[in-house]
Amino acid sequence: MAGVGRTYSSAVSLQADDIVRTAAHWIDRGVRLDTRTLAAELGISRSTLFRRAGNREDLMGDALWYLGNLTMAGANRMWDKEHGSAVRSPSGELRCLAVMRQYRSDIAGNQGFRRLLNEEPTVAIRVLTDPHGRVQPRVMAAHVALLRRDVDDGGFVPAVSLDSLCYAIVRLGEAFLYSDVLASRAPDLDAASTLLAALVEGHVPASEPLSGL
Q: I need a labelling partner for 9 at 20 to 30 A (CA). Which of 2, 81, 154, 172 fits?
């Protein structure tokens, strides 16, 4: 995930966004999100923190989304820097697939995020995958916007609605990204990229040979 710069505010003017940024900074550094310690660092009471940012899981969800959104923006900037407005790379990879691949790679490589998953797997997975929570609906919306850009630019024609396609993409991505917690197996991001490309494009990329049984 993208790194987070720290923002300091006076306790009087401290808003929910300031609290979320600080919480994201903690997660990014691998620090456990303890609301009592966080409130003390911010110079506010725990009750004030709760009123402004919600309970611990609410705050964790907003902080994880903040980090994820920065990471997605970084992956988009990387594509724009390398390929400009092109909808496919010289090798033929669709822009949205390349951005999603970089996004997953950056998330998987973030040590603070991995520490959260390792130390609080039940809470982390609940926060990350709750369909009515602070993370998954926003991740879904971000993927819809990502794919719509490629559709609008003539990159591909989806076989189903973008909402349905992105639901499948996000859920499949979660299954691989969090597979060490969900299924006790090491995350295989290459396999995830191959399957997601097949899901979006309707065929397995030519560079990914099929293996026999």
A: 2
- Note whether 135 and 113 are within 8 A (CB): no
**Contact present, 4 and 19 (Cβ < 8 Å):** no
| Environment class of 180 (CB within 10 Å of its CB; exposed 0-12, middle 13-18, buried 19+) | middle
Domain ranges of the chain: 56-201
Token pair recorded at residue 28 = 């990014």
**Amino acid (one-letter) located at 113:** F
Reported as a single tens digit per residue, the pLDDT across 120-176 is 999 999 999 999 999 999 999 999 999 999 999 999 999 999 999 999 999 999 999
Q: Is the dihedral of CA 49, 52, 57, 61 positive or negative?
A: negative
- The domain 56-201 is placed in CATH, from the list 1.25.40, 1.10.357, 1.10.150, 3.30.70, at 1.10.357
Residue 156 falls in which region: left (phi positive, over 0), alpha (psi -120 to 50) or beta = beta
Residues 89, 91: Cα–Cα separation, whole Å:
5
Model confidence pTM above 0.85: yes
Tokens (6 digits) for 6: 């720290």
